[in-house]
Amino acid sequence: MVDKVIVRADPLSHKPVDLWKKYLRQGRICEPAKTLRLDAPIYENKVRFVCISDTHEKLHEILPLVPDGDVLIHAGDFTNYGDVGEVIKFNAEIGKLPHKYKIVIAGNHELGFEDGEDMNERQLAGLNMLGIKKAYEMLTNCIYLCDQTVDVYGLKVYGAPWHPMPGYSFYRSRGQALLHKWNLIPAKTDVLVTHTPPLGHGDYNSWQKCDGLLAGCAELLNTVEMRVKPKYHVFGHIHQMRGVTTNGTTTFINAAICDHKLRSEYDPIIFDLPLPPGRSKDDF
């Protein structure tokens, strides 16, 4: 069935600060949201999700701090440059975690993970000699998603790595190019995992390479709010904005672990979703 709602690129996509001000005037909502304590009990009728992102080769430092759960989500940037040793190390470390399902997407720092990548873009940033092709094939201890859905406990989780930061793998320009990728997200998605934040949620950043003070993607926000409407949207990328917000329909989670100096500074974030009616965890 074709989605009835069509999202179009916003003419102000390339001016995210101005566009977000416009959206706020129009009544868009971004409010702080409550989170579960990391020691909250796990229930048989609910699926416990544990969210992390942007560990930047520091996963080993937080392994003892990652709470148990049913599903682990890593929203990208688990390496610094996508080198072989970094990927092998991450795969071994994530394999030590007890979660039944471990879902991982790439971020802009997973250089070489993008199939058919335009290397001219990375050459301009001096990153063309880093990373190796198809390094994601080394990830044997997790489920790697790239524009794909996986069903866990009857819930649909979709992962996509795209972002608007030039010079890195998975870069696409703001506007129609990124919207083309977001159009691949199925409408019936319970948990959306992207590396980049949507515009206005967990995306404040002063680094000019992120187009000023707001790094999030307007087309991603509009895809989430107008068409997909997932229960949860998990992302990272902007380290200093780790936290949780809501628009009243979707809960947005910036699950960054490292701060802007790449120190493992923050805790994982957890949430629960109910199992489908009449099902138990033993069914899966």
Automatic annotation (TrEMBL):
UniProt-listed Pfam families: Metallophos
Calcineurin-like phosphoesterase domain residues: 48-240
Highest taxon of source: Eukaryota
GO molecular function: hydrolase activity
Similarity comment: Belongs to the UPF0046 family.
Protein name, per record: Calcineurin-like phosphoesterase domain-containing protein
Organism: Steinernema carpocapsae (Entomopathogenic nematode)
